[in-house]
Protein 1
Amino acid sequence: MSFISVKHIKKTFKVPIKSSGILGTLKSFFKRKYRYIKAIDDISFSIKKGEIVGYIGPNGAGKSTTIKILSGILVPDSGDVKVAGLIPSKDRKEYVKQIGVVFGQRSQLWWDIPAIDSFNLLKEIYKIPKEQYESTLNELTKLLNLEEILNVPVRNLSLGNRMKCEIAASLLHSPKILFLDEPTIGLDAVSKKVVREFIKKINKQKNVTIILTTHDMADIEALAKRIILIGKGKLLYDGSLSKLKKNYDYLRKIKVVTKDTIDIKKDCIVKIEKLDDGIEFTIDIRKIEINEFIKLISSKISIIDIDIDSENIDELIVKLYEDFKI
Amino acid sequence: MKSYLCYFKLKFITGLQYRAAAIAGVLTQFFFGFVYISVYVAFYESGSSNLPMELSDLISYVWLSQSFFSLIYLWYKDKEILNMIKNGNIAYELLRPQDLYLMWCHKILGERLSSVILRFLPVILISVILPKPYNLDLSTSLPVLILFILSMILSSILMTLLVVFYHVICLFTLDEKGIVNIFMVISDVLSGLGIPVPFFPKFMQNISNILPFRYISDFPFRLYVGNITINEGLISILVQITWIILLFTIGKLLTNKALKRAVIQGG
């Protein structure tokens, strides 16, 4: 039985087209034209309990819309959504007790008061029993290192610390599912690492199902074994990250430090670039093994130093987007 | 219920923190009280006849409306709610296991009560000890006092529902400017906060008797100063209750409708 099941959902937004300028504004005042944008176009997937799923796609692909539908805020035009046996948009009040949501670009904490006061408010809103609340809060405080920042007014917190509080706030009522919409946006490397490790921990310890949208591929690499790729509202790929890598991650950059020059042409070499102190080859490992390639060039030039780089996951995704024409 | 009261508490605590605002509020109330009273005194002394209210009643009316001002004025905008609608943070409100409409009612009533509690006592106390004819005359009978308290409770509920209603409209218009602003100003005028309803031309009196606005400030204060009889008062309280039921139903239905077609702004 799948924990989250999404079947053929569609959502179209009606967007008024406004012409610019005074005349245009006047015109659209009397006769308004609309454009229909298919934010989500027939998407289906299912997720098991305890999975971490990375939900990726370029800007405007429909990621946030999906999250909003899954969290019961938006109603899909057609299709079925069932999460933990409930229909989010119908059983909203009952359903939202079981989920936690973090929108990375928004804040759920009261700006002027310390986070702990917001937490206490959430305790009342979710009717969390006192003992349970205290133990959860203690745990979260320890895991996220919150002691010193809980009593500072939220407006005085750094973005990283605020995000930690946001995530803690969404977990106070011990949800079974956690939706993270760009949780690491704008964070520095250290905070990102803390957030990622924390997500991993709660997934393991509490078996919380996590759906994560992000543009930071390092998040996906660190967290999600399974990814769902969407573009222009359509589902493009649903499967493991490693499989995707196998299909797309075949280029290696080999930087050779040398004083010699080389003139080589082979179809396994995609690109040759001259650097100040050597040469950078980009090779296709489907056509030649690295071992073979090094043998080949070492027979022609003397190698002082060598550096092999696999492709950045960001570039991989760019290639993927290009492939799917999104 | 308890989970809604926490908004109330929070707004209350936040409101109480702004002491400087409260002092400034009291001073403003006095300033406007004196301006209104000076105008009325000049008006009465110029020898106009057939005036619908006695000067002393009118002056008490002005002081009462000034002391409860922050609870009864109608062009109130809750910045937090309006921003939430504009920038899409309303998404978080919808994630709570609560009713959005009731949540807003509690937020707004909490905010208004916290602001009136800091302001009304000083205005009443000082205006009572002012020299005649500028003073507030608090003497009244027990039945009137009881009716007044009841009507004030109902009027704060009515005020909350009206203000929430304007905010609910913003769910459709996305902005409080324009039509909502116009509504707010009209309702403020018709509520009798500037000029008491008996001074309106006849046709405007008829209009304001039907509409809910007058039952928020004009009615309870005129009841207190004795310009409205107890019998009339009882009927008006029934009108208050009717409007409360009506506005609550409309507000709730509109909210549900708005949320069905909700579009969350900004990604």
Note: The CA atoms of residues 290 and 296 of chain A lie 10 Å apart.
Protein 2
Amino acid sequence: MLYRETGQFKTSYAADMAIFPIRQDRIALWGLLIFAFIGIPVMDAFQVWPLRGEYLIRAILIPFLILSLAAVGLNILTGYCGQLSLGSGAFMAIGAYGAYKFGTGVRIPLEIFTIDIPPLPVFWCILLGGVMSAFVGILFGIPSLRIKGLYLAVATLAAQFFFDWVFIRVKWFTNYTSSGSVVAPDLNFFGFFANKPIEKYLVCLVFVTVFALLAKNLVRGNIGRQWMAIRDMDIAAELIGIRPLYAKLSAFAISSFIVGVAGALWAFIYLGAWEPLAFNIDRSFQILFMVIIGGLGSILGSFLGAAFILVLPILLDQVPHALGVPVSVETVSLLVFVVTGALICWLLIVEPHGFARLWSTGKEKLRLWPYPY
Amino acid sequence: MRAPADIDISAGETILSIENVSLSFGGVRAIRDVSFDIKKGEVRAIIGPNGAGKTSMLNVINGFYHPQQGRITFKGQARAKMQPHDAARGGIARTFQNVALFKGMSALDNIMAGRTLKMKRGFLWQLLRVGPALNEEIAHRHRVEEIIDFLEIQAIRKVPVARLPYGLQKRVELGRALAMEPDLLLLDEPMAGMNLEEKEDMSRFIIDVNDHFGTTIALIEHDMGVVMDLSDRVVVLDHGVKIADGTPGEVKSNQNVIDAYLGVAH
Amino acid sequence: MIAFGQFLEVFISGLLAGVLYSLVALGFVLIFKASGVFNFAQGSMVLLAGLALVRSLDWLVAKGFPMWAAIVAGLMFAAVIMAITAFLVERYVLGPLVNQDGLILFMSTIGVTFMIEGAAQFLFGSDVYPLRLFPTDAWFLFEGSFPGGILVSKIDVWGGVIAAVLVAGLALFFQRTKIGRALRAVADDHAAAQSVGIPLDWIWFVVWLVAGLVALVAATVWGTKLGVQFSITFLALKALPVLIIGGFTSVPGAIVGGLIVGAGEKLAEAYLGPFIGGGIEYWFAYVLALIVLLMRPQGLFGERIIERI
């Protein structure tokens, strides 16, 4: 009975075009945001269960937020624009190393003069990491103008393997450290030092909330419709005046930008110190799975998918434990493979739009309840 | 919707002229040396037996195929190789033989997508979606709602088009083309696969579009009754060659046309 | 002369390594032609076949069976495993996904990949298992012409011979047998093939089975060369650029593409590596494929795609 929209009449197109046209959804969203921004810090301050200790924030909430952002980025490209990418890991790496270079100062001696950029504040580093990633994204997006689907997937694999190699072999990117591992600069956001997990969490939360909102604005506006038109039928899209060049490359640029920012956050905030291995092809698959499981073409789905992929290994570890069946760490990791793979296949068969669509179908049912139609 | 003011239906000014166009794929000659014109404000039918090159002709007109020979002049400008999106920019809209809607989008979004070229706000405005960007979105939504009213598809505006029955999909597709406010509207078998009632509806929409908005229409259709009733002039193709051109009455009594349709021993 | 001898040595070892890429690529092409499915799982099938073979082999040898009997039984066991896999994949994944968009099918095979990788290691273990089916020492050829001769590893030659036999066998299978003809009919047009009474699900099972057996053959050679281990799946991924270069629908393309990639990456490593840093084998194939894509999207041997509306 609670979930009814009866009596909520829209009197303007603006109201009908809101992100959540139904009042209950709006209330839920605001509730969630208030909880995330105020509730969790307060609970942390008073050490209320389950936030006792730092485990939940450090090991689950922060990675959840950052990987959700990466999934939002990939979803723009794959879910909205229909261009499959297996190279998200590489674009995260570009964001991370780009941010790192800007954070430690860039010096490129050229023939006539020397490009010399002093170390920049962390906030700008992270955004510039995203910009670098966007440039490379456009570059690797150019083949998409001539090729489609699977062919493009191989082009993005090229990006993945090439940049894996670049960040291992080209020492300039790691400032010639002998181990190849690099350390993030101090997390000073305009005087706010993010040192404790809860502070890092808040920084991530701000980034993710803002970017998710902006991404949602894009996908429901003109440019989003262009992306979806290209995805659903590129030829017809072109015949109504959409330029594939602009639509595809803008999707590549924006997607790579967001993924790059996520990469910078992952490196700076979650890892602190990292090696190129942190962004290998497994990362690409992890993010792709978040998008498929959460829902292709859904911003909300990106969050659901990220939550699921992160929670699954913990569940597979804890549940047999609780039932008294000891399972080795290795078995758990193999089980994660099998369960994830099976779930992907199952979802693609029953609901290619993932959890997000299951969610909205559920809401549809709830609106009509107790009547089936 | 309002009629573009500058169109005078009776003037008989040529909007598109096709001169000696030939198109081949490898060795197959789909169109051979065809010439005809379309006048502003008329309904021009292109008919012919299967494989006559009708759809290829439409594809040539909106830049999807590039003819090897011939000249195409649209709105007084001869054009070189143009891309389909340039054609759209120039004011040519199109519907397809097999519905080519964006399956994952709602009927409303499909028609909104037709407004792409009319929406001018840049990337940053869309990102923020406030002020001018939001106003623009709302203004275009108004226009699209007018089209939705006109086509009587209010009830299905938020339904993903893949779930709609065929007849309604055709209507949404027409809506998307109308949203472009084209100068020339190409309809590829708008009534294919429809029952009598749906055909009547569609005919009514076509007549209304032509009458009220003065949109020039070129249509391919197999139903001769529809063609004879709707069109001002008819061009007949057979095996890529033009065999007749004239008013419906003239074409109907043309011996070449009768032979092409009924078949004669060659 | 030394330089040329070195060049030949690198070139030949590259060609022979390329044969292995061709072997995996063949499996891709078979499935792609017959069902339009781009099977990302081919690499994981090599891993599964290899693990099934080496683990059963070791077990039988430990039980005291003679080597030849163990090999025959091991191969048969692995073949049965591949048949079961083919059945399960067809029945539970691709069957229900008939007529879906190519991208959805592709993503589903990524799901299959993870299932196979997880299950294979769960069942058969996840260490490195050495496989000794072929000699692994080397010949030195043309010692008269070049100082020191040209080193050619025997296992690579075995790989080449096996690939040649396999291709010949597949060609016979497709040209001469009834089921081969049915497969070609399905590849041409699903609906038409179905309308003349060819059962699609059976055909797809057979295709996946054949691809599984091709994976088994690749596993014998690779397993001997590197040991059966998880990283084989990454090597097998290189079949993707091979296919881009050769064209997805062409068996000769798969073979030539494999040779080009194999020789190209070895030569690049030997002659470009010193200038831009070692390890470029890691990405060379992919970047080469990218360049081919930009110049000839359908690959060297693929059919030109004409779009229609």
Note: Chain A touches chain B at residues 12-14, 17, 214, 217-218, 220-223, 225-226, 228-229, 231-233, 235-244, 250, 297 (CB under 8 Å).
Protein 3
Amino acid sequence: MKKELLKSALPADGFSDLRYQEYALTTIKGTKREIDTVAVVKKNGGNVRVLSGGAYGTYCFTDVNDVHHAVKEAKFASDLILGKKQYQHVEVNSDHVVARPKTDPRTVSIEDKKALVQHYIDLFMDTPEIANLETEYYEQFTDTLILNNRGTDVRQEELIVGINFRITSKRGELTQITRLSFGGGEEYSDLLDQDEVVLEKARQTVALLDAEPVKGGNYDVVLDSDVSGLFIHEAFGHLSEADNLVGNASLSKTMTLGELFATEDFNVIDDPTLSGYPGSYTYDHEGTRAKKTHLIKSGKLAGRLHSLESAYFLNETPTGHARAKNYGFTPIVRMGNIYIDKGRQTLDEMIKSIDNGLYLFGSAGGQTSGETFTFAVQGAYKIEGGELKGLVRDLALTGHLFTTLKNIEMIGDEVNFSKSGGCGKGGQILIKSGKGSAPIKIKNMGIGGK
Amino acid sequence: MKTLLEKALKVSDSAEIYERKVQSTSISILLGEVQGIESEKKTEISLRIVKDGKLGAAIATDRNDDTLVSRALISLTHQKSEAEPFPNTPISEVESYSEIVKEMTTETLVASAFDLVERFKTLAKEVAFGVEVSRTFKTVSMVNSEGLDASYDYSNVEVGIYTLNEKGFYNASRSFSGADFPVITDEDLLGMFREHQLDDHEVTLGNERLPVVFSGSVMGALMLRVVGGVSGANVTKGISPVTDKLGQKVFSELLTIRDDGRLPLGLNTCAFDDEGTPAQNTMVYENGVLKNYLLSVGHAKKLGMKPTGNAIKRALFSKEIEDAPTVFETNLIVEGPMTDDEALIRGIKRGLYITGVMGAHTGNINQGEFSMNISSGFLIENGELVGKVKGAMIAGNIYELFNEVEALGTKKEPMRGIFYLMGYSPMVKFREVSIVGK
């Protein structure tokens, strides 16, 4: 990295920062039984931001020799914006974070990785009625230099490795899709010895062919950790990203700290400093050290996720949550590892408390528009008279955030994190965004079938 | 590019270099204040090589990256692939860029964005709203060892405008896109304003079946499923519901769907696709009859058909240089006998007009299934929009729904396929759709 050249381009006045990133991605992708793509991607580029006028001017470049041009253009753009915004205090850091996994995927040969992936593929595809399988091994390594004109000089390596499966079972015209993920941290060893997990998922995917389609309506539901994690990510996590509040006074009022959002047992935290999950990191892409942040404490809105800009706008402290998909994008506020903290009830107690409801398992993607959210799940068990009964399929959920949070009646006593990350916002898919939760019980949840 | 091609040919039987140079600028304005101006200038290169009938690929941001060829060899060695010869079909010019947009400066873009801000402010007075404008200019060049040496310029301007409700959440919105600066009429803005005003007229629905009108924009959520069905990738894998249905009537005879990569100044117009196949105007469904699949070079070979110019470097959620050419739409066009938009709505006694959905990316897309939240939908009673539907979902399968088409509107809107726009559709009225309400 041409650090001195990059450093020399930063203007002294106002606020400016610069990221330069070397990006490497190894993927092994398969369809059905065959591995059809093996790719080793390498690309480099930078992204500069200048705040000399009323808001940021930013400029992305792929040729490092364009850095002076990039700074000039970014400054020109910022100066076009009326006003003068300046940060009084910026946390200044100087560090070099090196990824040091115990079992480093970068030292494993492509042959061995391929053999591992093929082994799991064969386990799935040898199961009768598994009709299609999409498999992806990914290993993303970034080496990012973050500089600003207040003195921050952070170089950070980030590594994430995992395998994602999307499994389709088929009988006649009926198909069912489930998902399974391994890894999501830095360790290659997390991907090994997962045969039992694969076989169990294959069995579940086939069993869903015998499930009844869910009847659309409102149900009392228990969400497993994976689904609860998706729920808190979609329903509340995005709203806690404080860049939504910049320039939006009405939403800032809606999100006043201290407002009662949920029952007093309910606690939501985002913590990138936990190690080994998809959303784990040390510094965000503005060079701010990541901070464990309480978002809901005892049911009350307690905090939010910040970038430098959103913290300045709300006169709060940056939490280190401004991140970008890669150098081609400007950092926006993203969740690290968001989770619902543990409560007091066992899963068994939650199920026993429901006379007629559903136990939902396996997340399958969701979306939010602020107040309302929706997400799909892989399947559910009926709960009748406090006991788990047969499987139901084809479930999608929807709800209104504020009503649903208040309808959370019970919180489980054990937190588990999902092994795959991933979140889309502002045209950026970020795989390093994690989620977890204790299981939760929600009353009167809207469920749509096909 | 030729030097790199020669270098690659030293270790391979045939080779192809794809290069794209992108310059873009985007501006966002909220409540009359600029929130930021973002620009980029990127050069990205992709190499594909064939040796002993196998294909390998690698990408870089620097032509002089000396690992590019060796990485392509790694991919060639390890992936199972049956390489097809790189195409060298004559490329004809298409109108894929506008000189005005090419020359557009950041200042002009800011001024255009503020023009729109002023116009909407005049119409909507106190309403809180935001405007986003982005401008892209791109040059794509390809050379291959079969003799292809072609390039085209591409421009695009995308304009988004949205309102906020009293709590500060997104309310009504519209998108506009094309190679030229899109024409936005007062009628467009007034339509959005009327939808905004209905936010405080909340209505709830029960579980019921109702006539439903999808706006042109929301048709994108359904067209994602149409593309999944006719994608050569899914047809050749045998996982498309329309495998072996060429020539059969699959949808209502009112529905015609084309994929027109050559549409003058369209939002995805290109001279050739990312494998070098010339862009085409492919009839996909004509009066409901399946006429063609969308095919890459490889899929076409397997099916004994011709490639359609739809092999595009993208995925559902990304348009990165490393995305292998995969079947996606260019400008998908939905058409049929036209009814006046207002008359179409006026003719409905009780029904739903949907202008926004969430969850388009979930469910079994390739099988045509959908189960989505209605994030913006309006109850129609006696031909009038009477309130905004809250907390309802819509579910079904396009292979049933698209046989229930009753009418198509007139004005075409860009269709939204999650992150990206995918072509143009008018509003479409369906006879009956299942709604899950309270």
Note: Chain A touches chain B through 87 residues (CB under 8 Å).
Protein 4
Amino acid sequence: MGFRANIVESEFPIPPFKKGVRGISSPKGIGILWLLIVTSFFSCPAFSSETQLPDNLSRLLGALEKQQDWRLDGSPQHAKSDGLFVLINGGAEIYLEYGFEQAVLANFKHQNGEALILEIYRMKDQHAAYGVYTFKTDKQAKPLAIGGQAKLSDYYLNLWQGSYVITLTAPTPGKTSQATLITAAKILSRAIEKKGEEPDLVRRFRRATAALAPPAEIKYVRGNLALSAHPTAIKNLIPIGEGVAADYETSQVYLLQFKNTAESLERYNRLRKAVRKERGPTSLRTAKKHFSFLSDENRFVLVRRKAQYLIVLQTGEAHRNSTRFTALRQAIESFR
Amino acid sequence: MTEKIDRRRFIQQGTAIVTGSIVAGTLDPAPAEATPPKKVDISVVQGTDYFKSTKEAVKLLGGIKRFVPPKAKVALLANPQRNNPGAFTSPRVLAAVIEMCRKAGATEVNCISWLPLENWQSTGLKSAVDEQGAKLKITDLKNEELFTPQAVAKGKQLKEARIIKSLFDHDVLINVPVCKDHAGNKFTGTLKNMMGLNSPKNNRSFHKKDWATNPDSIRFLDQCIADLNLVLKPVLNVVDATEFIITNGPFGPGKLHKPDRVIAGVDRVAIDAYCCTLWGLKAKDIHTITMAHQLGLGEIDLKKVTIREANA
């Protein structure tokens, strides 16, 4: 199968030997094996079995090729832990923030002339994978009933299942059909055993807001980097542990979880102090259990602390007294 | 004829020396048609023929000979991120830059990088390099001996960079990035592309242990990028803003934006300040741009920048 071709380990960019080496039995194969052992011994002792593609990733690559008329185009590239900094140069931070283990990137060509880029990320746990998936997808994408969750955008598809996030992309938009991306995603999904569950925080958020129209999108956040991608007045002000960002079109909700009540209180006070310092003491309206202010973008921001959580609601100045915003506020304040 | 140039110094102070030399008349004078009637800081050319747009953008600045003296050895820094659409420098843009350099009389045009060959192949950039008669020089990123320590005396956070050694074999550095979204920095363009010349190990030092949770550590990362630009001064920047991702950057895939523009200029801060407006960002919100401006690396206020626009 095509995936037995050389795999490029991002930590060791010289093409290493392949996974299939273990199975070599022909005289020619044995000769190649000896040659590889000798050359790797003399060239660089750092080359080791680390350069083999792990079974789980190898199986996924194989699943696509086995069931379709796909063939690998070039060598797959593989990275683990910090090696991701080289593999997806500059794009690694967000994966590491959520908790990353391994990734493989490969180009495929179909016999009908279509092509696709396959990215498989194995994250540390299913919630890390879910978080990256929500970070990578947007509300314009079309939800699909594949795996744990999947969304189709114009020329690419993201799939979350268990500890995996998989992205399938048409290298040239329009030249690979969306149907092809969907078919490939279904094949890969079948090769992963567990579907996965959303994080507990997300499920509790959904329960608290079940009576409302569902948000346009939910993002699961595990660090400041993910949070800073959101257009909120509190970005870069709160180092957080875990959170949910939900977009209700005219309003946004941020539910941020901290280690304990002492930590949430400290963050609450720190944020209030920062807002007062940045915008002046008259900018704040403080009540018993919350404070509010107008952001630079003239958005009404309300911050409330509840046990180990901070709840931040944001809406346009024109919507702050609307029925929808009030209902949203009441719903999220019932969160437990 | 070309004066003898201390190459290392040239890389560090490229802009000043090339501009100064032209002003002093020590280099071959540029052809009359290449001399702009008025100083142009940034040129912006729109059109769907990216090869033509690139050449036109440089022409509006005064022509390639303003930047590449005859017999020069030219190093090009493109972004071969990988082949997700809108995540890498357009091969057509790079091809045009190579062709211009060669026509200007460069003896060597080399694309230097520590990213693997696969990236160059899958993006089509390797083909562009080959077709235009340039060379691809990939540095083994695992071998720190292939990177030269470079003190960053005026750096606020970064005190030492480690630059690809082969860069110092060249006379001229031209930066050919793609501008696009970036998850951490919100924007990547000329300034951040310089990390492609710094060793990956040193780039990692831009990330403090708590970079993922501490906002100050994210600013530290941005400051390091700005600081790195103190020791790397390309004589020219040609930015691919033809089609790029505005979400899920820098790797993609993400939402594509297609302004069909090529931007050229010397002032990296001004160029990045312009490019980020292409999808509604403001330079004042991008830390790397504001920090580079504070370091005196360029003009952030576009009202003070002479921008010449054209269609190709």
Note: The radius of gyration of chain B is 18 Å.
